[in-house]
Design brief:
Helices cover 55% and strands 5% of the residues. It is mainly alpha-helical. The longest helix is centred in the N-terminal third of the chain and has 20 residues.
Length: 118
């Protein structure tokens, strides 16, 4: 199932705040299952070069919007804090490397559209 690009930021925000609402063991189990689904969805939107893309990651041209990708990376770090799954930490680190590699001299990072490596 492909989630429309506009829902990716919503998923990221939900992932960041997921555990603040669980009050019972059942709710915590459900929340952790949702956390893993959301984090895995973010992983599926990461390209081999570390970019976290909006939209379908299997169908170029790709769209990278660093603002939303940063939210996704924060969500991945939160998922790592809770699950200790190294995939989430590695993905957040790969995003950070991509981000640093695409910074302009003034520290900004533009939105990118196109193919991998462009």
């Amino acid at each position: 199932m492909i989630i429309p690009a506009i829902k990716i930021p919503i998923i990221c925000l939900a992932l960041l705040s997921l555990f603040s609402f669980s009050t019972s063991a059942f709710a915590a189990d459900s929340a952790q299952d949702a956390l893993v689904r959301f984090a895995d969805r973010i992983l599926s939107n990461q390209l081999p070069d570390g970019a976290i893309v909006m939209g379908d990651p299997t169908f170029p041209p790709f769209q990278v919007m660093p603002y939303f990708s940063n939210l996704a990376a924060f969500g991945l770090m939160r998922a790592y804090d809770i699950t200790y799954d190294p995939r989430y930490l590695n993905a957040a680190q790969a995003w950070a490397v991509w981000y640093i590699g695409h910074q302009n001299p003034d520290g900004t990072v533009y939105d990118y559209f196109g193919q991998v490596g462009q």
